[in-house]
Structure formats: C-alpha cells, structure tokens
C-alpha cells in the first residue's frame, strides 16, 4: 500500500514471465524460481499456484529447505541470502554473504556453505536467528560448488575440478586423460552429427587450461555424475575419485543431470532430453519445445522441466508431456467495467475477471498486440498494434459493433481515456457517442479534473496485475453522488471489491502473496 487510504488488490497471473532457473520439491510443495527473482509456489500436481514471493531483484540461483528452523532459504545473483517462514513464506531475514553474485547455497553437517563470484567459499553457523561466519577460503577461478556426503566438489573456470573436506582442505583432484575424452567424442559421432569431425578440434573448443568445467552435478551411493560443456558427462568413483565412465549425450551445454533407474538423464541447450544407459552404452534423446534450464524428478516419478521462456512442463518417465504451465503474458493495458476487469496482453489476448470474486471466466484473441482497452456506456473499445479500433458490447459474448482504422502508426499513439473520449494523439480523439475518430482535443480543464480525481489505477509487478483503489476518493464520489468522472456502476464495483475480496492472494509483508486456503489444503495432503 502506498498510503493509508489506498486499497491494493493483486490479480495473479499464474506462473513466470522470465526463464526458469531453479525448480525444487520441498515438503510436498514445488518451488520454481526465475530470472526476475520471482518464486512461485505450487502443489505437486501443478493444478494450483499457492502464491508467489518477490524473493530477490535478480535471477534465483537456489532454493533450499533450511534445516535449522522451519523455513526455506534462497539465493540469487545478488549478494545476499534470505530466509522465508514456512508458515506463510514471509521474509524472516536477509543477510549479505558475498561481495559478488552468490553462486548457490548448500548444507554440510551443522553448517551452511555458500560460494560467490568473489571467489570465496564460506562456511556459516546459524544461532539465535543470525548467520555467523565460521571460515572462508579463497579459491581462484571458483565457478561452481556441490556438496555430497561430507565433502565438497569444486569446479573452476580454468577447467580444474577438486574435492575438499568439510574444513575446506583439498583432498583430491579429478584428472581426465585426453585419450579417454577423444574416445568418447568419437563414439558419440554415431548419434550426434556435431561430433563426427576431428575430436582434437572439438577438444580445442572445450577445454580450459586444466580440463572441463562442470555445469551440473548429482551423485548416488557409489558414483559422482558430472555434466560439462558441450554435452560431455563424466562418472567418478566416490571411493577413490577415479574416472569410471565418460560419454557424450548432447552437442550443447548440459544444464541439469539426474539418475533415474540406473540411467543418466540430462537436459541441455540443444532443446533435448537425453537418457544414457551406461551399462549398455545405449543413448536415446527426446525433443523439447524450448531450451530447458532445470529439471527435477518428483516423488511420483514425473519430471518437471523449466524452460528459458518461462514455461514449465510436466512429463512422465517416457518424457510424454502431461501438462504445462504457460509463461505469463506481458500485460499492456487494463480497464474496468461494472461487471469485469479486463486486461490486454502483448500477444493479443483479452481476458476478463469477474467482480467481485476475480475469476477469469473467458477470453478471446486477436492477431495483434493489445495497446489499449477502454469502457464507456456498456461498450468496450480495444486498440491494437495494427491501428485498429474495435468496439464491442461489454458482455460475455464480446459481439463486435464496429471497427475503425486509426490514421496513425503505433508509435504515434498516446492513449488516454476521458469518459466518452479516447485521446489517440494530441489532436485526434475517438468519440464513443458519435462512434467516430475526429480531429480535436480534450480540454485542459477536463484533463485537470481527471488528474485530480483518480480513484483507481493499475500497475504490473512480476507478471501480476495490481489494482490500487483510493478509498477516500471513492467514498467521496459515492457520498456526493458525483458520477461526472466515473460511472456509478464502476464506483460501486470498486466498492464491492473492497468489501468482498482483498485478493485471491493475501499479501504477507512486502514480498509475499499467498492463497492461504489453497496452502492449507496442500499441507493437509502431506
């Protein structure tokens, strides 16, 4: 809320509008983080979004259960880590832990491990609600780190890979012999055309000074599985850190690696899922619609994949698509009628939400971006990027009444509504009552009256619509019976919204919006 008289309603757009960078399943809830710093919270079937957290101002790098209190901990390409209450996901604490981007967070025994682009690996304790630095070590070229058992795998941008103990002492180095890499590249040529050329030419593009940097990691009881640049996978014995297998599953960088029923499952920037059976040296790949950035397997054995356009796909174990959560559409404009809130999107959708319960009941599509939506006297005007002005009846049928071509390019439009008039440019207006586009302008006195009488406004945050209502001005207009600026039906609809719904999502502090009812239902299923 911006002041004491402003009533704020969130109209959620389910999902993300930026690349999905992290997916985690925590206590039967799914958390998805994106490149804008937004985290969405879902039930495990992805039927319902419980809410979202504006967790950070930069791309999410990690989301983890925090074992020292009932909360989750998050990091981003910022400098801090943040704790969020498990009860309602309100912000508990934010603490700067690095002087540059936080790579990720993990846990080792009773400690929290963080790494940053400042090339520092740090160990933290947590007591009395605060983080305390226990130890730190400078690691030149630090790029990624991964915790397994009581050890840490360190990958550096120079290609070196090392194993550290819990006190940050180096234990071993993973050394990959070039002849084994050459052999793996040659074998991959039979199913990856990119690798049919000379292996030494390929290696020249792959290697750092000391080897292959790691892009992703997983492990089981006996082995460490490392995904590298250009689709290369190495498998190492945990007992002595000797190389066990090396093979190639993609011809682009691997973004996630997983073990499923003895097979290595990887996704990569070639827009494919690859499944490699190590024992049989058998390779199979599946096409994906977009570039995948992260993958997890749920407890029901379904896979969830996050894509670079904000789409989330749910797949069975044979990678048949079960369902998807489409990316949030960019919203260009909003309007309100006595019965509906209407939004226009960049890809040509007009959506309607009922008043007061804010249910999306219907939408329709045109082949151009929606630039403006305006309501007047049971009619709706929609202006698109092809300079069309369409008039519709403001009902569920959306019957078109008239269509006009605006004699202006999209770049010249300056859209503003003043009751019966829509200002198209400084000297061109549309008159709802005459149903004409004509030369002229709205008087300065009318413009001043409107600017001083603004009762509601729309804003857009992380893919969601925020409706701000000035309750003092709303009550003043209703008490005076003054409907010269806003029709009575719209004012009474705003009053209904204030009295009957705060939002499908309840705002918890400054960062979190949660549907409490759906959250409780999801938790009862655990």
From TrEMBL:
Output one GO MF annotation. histone binding
Query: Which domain of life does the protein's organism represent?
Result: Archaea
Q: What is this protein called?
A: Anaphase-promoting complex subunit 4 WD40 domain-containing protein
List UniProt keywords, sorted A-Z. Repeat, WD repeat
Q: Which organism is it from?
A: Candidatus Heimdallarchaeum aukensis
Pfam families, alphabetized: WD40 (PF00400)
